[in-house]
Amino acid sequence: MSSSFSSDSGYAADDLKARDAAIERGLDFVYRFSKKRECFANYGSFLICCFALVAATSRNPRLRRLGRDRARQLLRRWSRLHRLLPADASSDLLFDFILVHYAQSRLGFHDPAGVSAIRLAAHKFPASDLLDFDPGKEPPPEDLPYLCDCSFQNPRGRKACKQCKRRLRMRSRYRVWMEALANTYVAEKSGVLFGSRYADVLKWAPFMRPYPTAAEEDEEVVRDAIYAVTHIVYTLNNYGTYKLSPRWLRHEFAYLKANVESACTQRDPELLGELLDSLKALGLTARHPLIQRGTRYLLDEQNGDGSWGDIEEENLRTRCHTTWTAIDGLRTCAWRGQRLSFADLKSSWKKWAR
Ligand SMILES: [Zn+2]
User: Which of the two ends of the chain, N or C, has the fewest CB atoms closer than 10 A to its terminal CB?
Assistant: First the structure.
């Protein structure tokens, strides 16, 4: 290994080069994907966010430029497709607008008229429509079924499909919590109340601990719990903007560290990308054995087309999301100090972090 380490990233110069090349190939994959009309129509808002965050948080200036150029290009396409938020917008379209607005703000563009329209539309929906539960009244529930294979969405509490009678798979409470954390956070950062305040979702942290291990729970629940914890990190650090002290997230830090090795042995680049990204936010450097182990794994497992994950996967959003998280696991962020995304959360989080 070369002895010349690049200042604070802690990567040897050659490793850094290999890593940056892998990241660019990954971003090219996501970009090619966005060119397909159907993909952009379905996932445009999510792809805009991917490039906007690369632009806003990367330490490498070349990646910042690349992210910015592509995010702006996709934003132009988005605004041609969606001029205004219709008054009768569905909750999905509403959230697309929120994501796009968040991405714009990360690029430094502000659109007060757009936010007012989003705020008005969001106001029409109760928490139970946007988040599937009301965090002001109850913790994340365990009785929310996934969409049935027959594509019928069953109401809360059903165990068998109303339409085809098949047994339903349930979303774990960690998955429900993770989605609510991310959605209320991105909305609130954009000045929109999305069914509930972010703090009302976050406050359930003590109730969700101890986080489950593979010895106690099935694999899917553990995976959802890890994602919930990475989303505590992302929402507390404004998606790659601030460093967090591991002392502030004692339980979460230990849980994330404990799951790196199994993400490698289970060949799960999506989970691993989020784990590395979060652990770096919590202060682990490139020289830490877990970051080295995970980085090596991601570099070795990149597909020929620049993506990560199963190339046979039919869900295109998953294909893209896996690649996005692997990119973020490899990327070095330009931290803007150590603090929480919402300064006024400090005293509450101290209580919930215990
Ligand atoms: Zn069904």
Answer: N
Element (H, E) at 350: helix 346-352
Instruction: Look at residue 247 and give its three-state secondary structure.
Output: coil
Q: What's the gap in Å between 78 CA and the centre of ligand 1?
A: 34
Q: How many whole angstroms from 49 Cα to the centroid of ligand 1?
A: 33
Per-residue pLDDT band at 20 (split at 50, 70, 90): very high
pLDDT band for position 10 (cuts 50, 70, 90)? low
The neighbouring-strand residues paired with 145 are 170
- Going 331 to 337 to 340 to 341, the CA torsion angle's sign is negative
* Residues forming beta bridges with residue 58, ordered by sequence position: 333
What are the tens digits of pLDDT across the range 285-311? 999 999 999 999 999 999 999 999 999
The alpha carbon of 53 and the centre of ligand 1 are apart by a number of angstroms equal to 38
> Which tokens go with 191?
């000045």
DSSP H or E segment with residue 326 = helix 316-330
Each as own residue / partner, the long-range contacts of residues 75-79 (CB below 8 Å, 24 or more positions apart, any chain) are 75/48, 75/100, 75/103, 75/104, 75/107, 77/40, 77/44, 78/44, 78/45, 78/48
Confidence grade of residue 180 (pLDDT, cut at 50, 70, 90) = very high
Residue appearing with tokens 């809360």: 156
Q: Give 162 Cα–ligand 1 centroid separation in angstroms.
A: 7
> CB atoms < 10 A from the CB of 56, how many?
22
Backbone phi and psi for residue 145, each to the nearest 5 degrees, phi listed first: -75, 150
Helix axes 37-57, 61-81, angle to 10 degrees: 140
Query: pLDDT tens for residues 340-349?
Result: 999 999 999 9
pTM to 2 decimal places: 0.95
3-state SS assignment for residue 147? coil
- Reply yes or no on whether the pLDDT at 194 is more than 80: yes
Backbone angles phi, psi at 347, to 5 degrees: -75, -35
Q: 161 C-alpha to center of ligand 1: Å?
A: 4
Nearest to 180 by CA among 164, 167, 196: 196
Q: List pLDDT tens digits, range 219-241.
A: 999 999 999 999 999 999 999 99
Q: How far apart are CA 323 and CA 251, in angstroms?
A: 28
Q: Which two tokens stand for residue 270?
A: 């999506």
